Amino acid sequence: MAAIATPLQQEPNLFSQLLGRPTAAAGLAVLVIIAVMAILAPVIAPYSPTKLSIAARLHAPDLQHLFGTDDLGRDVFTRMLYAARTSLSVGFAVVVFSGVVGIVLGLTAGFFRKLDTPVSRLIDAMMAFPDILLAIALVAALGATPINVVVALGIVYAPRLARVVRASTLVIRELPYVEAARALGVPTPVILVRHVLRNVTSPILVQGTFIFANTILAEAGLSFLGVGISPDIPTWGTMIAVGRQYMDQAGWIMMFPGAAIVITVLALQLVGDGLRDLLDPRLAKDI
Fold it and tell me: HSE-up of 114 (CA within 13 Å, CB side)?
């Protein structure tokens, strides 16, 4: 009797599995909507983010100004859209910058035994300072520009990723296939990229989403304190700082950007939790 061939069943990819989790899918959908609105801000925004209209200052939300106006008559909805571009751009840039620095430090500390102690002490020293205080000090030293804010926050969050990469590398470097690659004379850079880095991608992705969320909060905090990006550039933190002065008579100036920060950070946390549950073998058994 002839054997009946059955088609191989392909396992769903990570994106499909993520969409299968309601909370992670909801967070991802919110992030996509915010990103699209930020990218299309010049098309969607009804006004210029810097257009002043003193006659319309502190105008309550209505059909003409969906989120009202601020103390200088600028449209709050328009400024929120452009502020989203700033927050998402800074967040993504910090994730990339801290990712590169953290991966290099983590691989170096985890793979090379002689360098583990000095690099680990450097990571510990950087993490000894509170995040916001270290960020304020670095921005004050470098200058309040978007690039310097990215560098400062990247330096602040790189040690977190470095510790995660180091911990995973310490385990992977002792595995048989890494020892076999060494015995065969495979160059160390090839081992690091092909055998080590590929196997620490999962924790890097998860940690990246959390760094993204923390960066948005930190950037808003720096702008709120007046030590972040220049006030000429719309940011959610600057809008909240302005709205604090008019909280009693124009609460919408502070309420809408605050809600935007909460929603964006919550969406990133939901996506990060979904990725962690899917990529962690111990948690994946329970899914």
Answer: 0
